[in-house]
Design brief:
Chain lengths: ~500, ~220
């Protein structure tokens, strides 16, 4: 069950980091990856996600073209906003770069250990004993390479693994994958380690110098005041000067770190991914499986549509023909009765039309196709009587039926909030992470929402189950109510 | 004629009842679920039960299951099944229990009131009413069946009308031929389908059944 003391700022409540695509989007012209909606009247940034999808998946250098591009975004009227977005982007890039370098430092340390082990095993092979340890060493190497692939995939385009390499010595000697992994091991345990270490050092320096005035009085006499190891502060002015040095460190971090992160990841991306000669049958098998799952969800969706057409709309139209048939038979004997039947037939036809509209809308709400999930949700929020904040950071595309489901979940949830919750404020957060769409709707109402209480939640749950997703509702008496939904993106 | 209607859509159920009552037929009960329908049939023992195929809980073949069960409990009950679409497995499932007092029609046929009432009467009087659409589909699917392949196009037409439940005179009228010609065709059909007069069965029914069985066997 989700916690109820969720802070209003949702940036920290999702247990994952932004994926690299998110960063790509942040950089894309005219968009922020995040769309915040604070009530009717504001439509800023609404159209972002769709437009930004064009840049999805590119791994090219993101930083170099930014200043020029950024100039195009706001137009001449908004230089201030331009500057601010530029600063935010640079900050985000640097923060992501630092995180990436630090995690890379971790694997680089392990790489160093494995490198030493490999060299020792190789030496031991000369006297024969090493042959016993070769399989273990190779297995450790493959495990580390796999871990690095996962890590790099988290920070950028997926690094596709080649076929699992052999662990016996003789085939391993000629195996291209093993050779490439060894080449990576050498680079990562040296260059990668160095870059990671530098990043840590830069961070340490920046923090030390920035906070220097807070603690310089406590530092031992005559110890050096700056991170560079020279100069001794004797006065408050000196101490504040050290803070200026921190500004320099931060500038270096902003300027260099994203590039360093790219360089650190490069050998892994090049050497650990499946080479052109690699057999991709495993990968194909995986893709086939996910594709089958997607088709399955699709079939379920079609079944749902078929049902609503046969059991709803068709029955309505049959009713029309039945009433018309009866009216025709009656028109001679009892014109008044026939008139009444015709009246009923007409209203049944009107109902059929209304149901047809509902079915069509249920297949794919037109607004979803026109404006994307973020735009469609903002539309829902605008028509919701309870002030509602929509926060969408959907970096991965989802199948249209999945986005439609997300849309209906929010539509139903907002309807319930408006009708029953007594809330003064609601909030909808949408994130995509590792092929899953996470959706969360919270309100500050009096809680006590009951799924069996005849709400439309039952239908929503069925729809989610059809997509192999999950739904969790937490609504203690006194509130708040939290609805959490997770769906596979299906792509 | 006493009738029980089972249809889960309330508006359509009401419309059907209205139509039949306007024709001064006696609708003794209506039901929205197969269980209620069986209860109503047990209670009122009507002459005819009109059942929708898709009913709760799963909206698949509840009506067919209910029809088979109702006929098991009340062998004398006439059953008219209304379907949203033609599904051969439904048709054969129903018809293999015997085609007497049985009807299987597409829902929209109800709007053609005269034909619908005609089918209803035919079923109530011990005959059969199979939707022309069902029959047409059975025929297209059975092309590869060697025995049916032996039939001439005219004979196939006659068999199709037999499957719809029409009598000889009605068939003759439809095809604009004499009763004698229809007789000749039917004898020829029986011969080609290896149905001898010595068999203790209604050969008309057997011909249609044989044919439906073939369809079912081949899945």
């Amino acid at each position: 069950m989700p916690t109820h003391d969720t802070p209003r700022d949702t940036s920290g409540t999702w247990p994952h980091r932004d994926t690299p695509e998110a960063r790509e989007e942040d950089r894309a012209p005219g968009t922020g990856g995040s769309h915040r909606y604070t009530g009717p009247g504001s439509t800023r940034g609404v159209r972002g996600v769709r437009g930004a999808r064009g840049s999805h998946g590119t791994s090219g250098p993101g930083g170099d073209a930014e200043p020029g591009r950024a100039g195009e975004t706001g137009g001449p009227g908004e230089p201030e906003r331009d500057l601010r977005t530029l600063a935010t982007r640079a900050g985000k890039d640097a923060a992501h770069g630092l995180e990436q370098l630090t995690s890379g430092f971790g694997t680089a340390m392990m790489a160093l250990v494995v490198l030493v082990t490999t060299v020792l095993t190789a030496l031991a092979c000369l006297v024969g004993i090493g042959l016993l340890f070769t399989p273990v060493t190779l297995r450790i190497l493959h495990a580390l390479a796999g871990r690095e692939r996962d890590r790099l995939s988290r920070w950028g385009p997926e690094v596709i693994a080649p076929e699992p390499p052999p662990t016996r010595l003789r085939p391993a000697l000629t195996d291209p994958t093993t050779r490439r992994e060894l080449a990576w091991l050498v680079r990562h345990s040296t260059l990668g380690l160095l870059l990671g270490f530098l990043a840590l050092l830069l961070m340490l320096f920046a923090v030390r110098d920035a906070t220097f005035p807070l603690w310089w009085r406590l530092a031992p006499q005559d110890s050096s005041s700056t991170s560079l190891g020279f100069g001794v502060a004797h006065s408050w002015a000196d101490a504040l000067a050290v803070t200026l040095l921190a500004v320099g460190w931060i500038a270096i971090i902003l300027g260099l770190v994203p590039g360093m992160a790219r360089i650190q990841g490069k050998p892994g991306r090049r050497l650990l991914s499946a080479g052109p000669e690699a057999d991709l049958s495993l990968r194909i098998a995986q893709l086939t499986a996910t594709r089958a799952a997607a088709l399955d969800a699709h079939a379920t969706e079609l079944r749902r549509i078929e049902r609503s057409l046969h059991d709803g709309t068709q029955n309505r139209i049959v009713t029309v023909t039945v009433l018309l048939g009866a009216a025709r038979r009656m028109v001679a004997r009892d014109p008044a009765g026939a008139e009444e039947l015709l009246e009923r037939a007409q209203s049944a036809a009107e109902q059929a039309l209304a149901e047809l509209r509902t079915v069509a809308r249920g297949i794919l709400p037109p607004v979803l196709a026109d404006r994307g999930l973020a735009g469609a949700l903002n539309g829902l929020a605008a028509s919701c009587p309870v002030p509602c904040r929509i926060d969408v950071e959907a970096t991965q595309r989802c199948a249209a039926s999945v986005e439609a489901t997300a849309y209906f979940v929010v539509a139903e949830a907002l309807t319930n909030i408006a009708k029953h919750s007594g809330a003064r404020h609601a909030e909808v957060t949408v994130r995509t992470h590792e092929g899953r769409l996470r959706l969360r709707v919270t309100d500050d109402g009096h809680g006590g929402a009951d799924e069996d209480g005849g709400s439309g939640l039952v239908g929503i749950r069925r729809r989610i189950a059809a997509h192999d997703g999950t739904l969790a509702l937490a609504s203690p008496r006194g509130g708040p109510t939290t609805l959490e939904v997770e769906l596979p993106c299906g792509l | 004629m006493r009738i029980v209607i089972a249809e889960d859509d309330p508006l359509l159920r009401e419309g059907l009842a209205l139509l039949l009552r306007a024709e001064s037929l006696d609708v003794v009960a209506t039901a929205g679920t197969p269980d209620d329908a069986l209860k109503a049939i047990d209670e009122h023992t009507p002459d005819v039960a009109i059942l929708d195929v898709r009913m709760p809980p799963t909206h698949t073949d509840e009506g067919i299951v209910a029809a088979v069960e109702a006929r098991r409990r009340h062998p004398d009950l006439a059953v008219l099944v209304l379907s949203a679409y033609v599904e051969q497995t439904f048709a054969t499932e129903l018809l293999t229990g015997g085609v007497r007092k049985l009807g299987y029609l597409l829902k929209e046929r109800v709007g053609r009131v005269e034909e619908f009432l005609d089918a209803l009467r035919r079923v109530a009087e011990g005959g059969t009413a199979i939707d022309p659409e069902v029959v047409a589909q059975l025929f297209t699917r059975s092309r590869e069946d060697s025995r049916l392949e032996r039939l001439s196009p005219r004979e196939r037409e006659v068999l199709a009308l037999m499957a719809e439940g029409l009598g000889n005179t009605a068939i003759a009228e439809r095809l604009v031929v004499t009763d004698g010609a229809v007789h000749k065709h039917i004898r020829s059909i029986f011969a080609k389908l290896d149905l001898s007069p010595a068999d203790q069965v209604d050969r008309r029914v057997a011909a249609v059944l044989r044919y439906l069985d073939d369809v079912r066997r081949r899945g």
